[in-house]
Amino acid sequence: EPRYILYMQLIINDMITLSVSVILFMFVYLLPNINVAICCIFIFIGSNVYKNTPLNLAGMAIERFVAVCYPLHHARICTVQNTKILIGIIWLVGAVPAVVDLLVVIILRPLSFFTSSRKCYHQNVFDFEYNIISHAVFNIGYMCLVWVLLFYTYFKVLFSAKAAASEPAQAQKARKTILLHGVQLLLCTLSLFTAVLDGALTSFFPYYRSIIYFCTFLLTSILPRL
């Protein structure tokens, strides 16, 4: 069924997110300076799968919304083929911010930059003002869009359940599912505050920078996936 395909896509996506996050974190400790081109590949993948998570949650909420509010059209709209197309769209839309970051660096940096070595984290490689602004805009934009979709689908399912008592159990289950997606999204939103949290804590405790980075990494990247 489409919802289980999307669920497996979410699990696989989070597995890739965790793997890439841990690899990048290990790079910072074990290989302080690595080739920028290799670093860009890892950051590109990490940025894409990170954006996919909220988009995937939105897709799962919409599928439940169609199942409860338009049950007669569910079999026609939510097919396996359409679900595959939706997953493709999720990956394409999720890749847009990383593509923008990469294009900015390719245009404004000399080619020798990609053969140099740097510490491998986003702010150190994509450090132009355009990158910082676009990164913030895309993150906030994606999260706001998904929050709006989750709120809309949740309340539509809630009202539909009250209006039609023929399938109360299914409507209640869908409502709980969308609410769970909201909790998942709330946890994913924590990663938006990583940079702010790191900056605030390191300003007070500059000698514990590595410990602070490690703890915020666990809090904002690992914990939400668990």
UniProtKB/TrEMBL annotation:
Superkingdom classification of source: Eukaryota
Domain called G-protein coupled receptors family 1 profile: residue spans: 1-226
InterPro entries assigned to the protein according to its UniProt record, in alphabetical order: GPCR1_Superfamily_Member, GPCR_Rhodpsn, GPCR_Rhodpsn_7TM
Subcellular location: Membrane
Transmembrane segments: 20-45, 85-108, 132-157, 178-201, 207-224
Main location: membrane
Keywords annotated in UniProt: Membrane, Transmembrane, Transmembrane helix
Protein name: G-protein coupled receptors family 1 profile domain-containing protein
Annotated signal sequence range: none
Keyword Plastid found: no
Pfam families: 7tm_1
One GO cellular component term noted in the UniProt record for this chain: membrane
PROSITE patterns: G_PROTEIN_RECEP_F1_2 (PS50262)
